[in-house]
Fold:
Amino acid sequence: MNKQIILGIDPGIATVGFGIISCQSSPPIGNSLKINQPSSLIKPIELLDFGTIETPAKTPIGHRLCIIYDDLNTLVKEIQPDLVAIEKLFFYRMSSTITVAQARGVIMLVLAQSNLTYVEFTPAQIKQALTGYGNADKHEVQLAVARELELDDIPRPDDAADGIAVALTAWFNL
Structure:
């Protein structure tokens, strides 16, 4: 069974959420278990880690971008993902859109320098993949993350749960 590591990223300037999953090359369709293998030994997907990269609010934008660059570089070198999935920028408040776009540019720079393949998904694509409904609310997506990974609780903070959702969407689209 071919495993791969997927890093999901929810870009932001104050908080970059991330989720790291280990999974089969593609999600199982129907009952893909072999008869001689106990189902308890087969885990098609596993949550390895999740968290956030945070930048202080009163820090100049250039320094905040450096923090994102340095921390993401460290994370990428540690986990060596096979694939990275990034949430596409969603335009809803012009004042924050520009700074999020700058952070997203830094994230893409780190990925390019590390020669990592990445895929992008819109918020609607992520919602559709996890809930079956492109206009699902944040809580429905978080519940779907917990359900898919068989977690007792929704991962916190929200940005980390969003990073996991992006990684799961990539797996569903392999």
About this structure: Confidence is low (pLDDT under 50) at residues 30-41. Residues 3 and 87 are 23 Å apart (CA to CA). The first helix runs from residue 61 to 79. DSSP finds five helices and five strands in the chain.
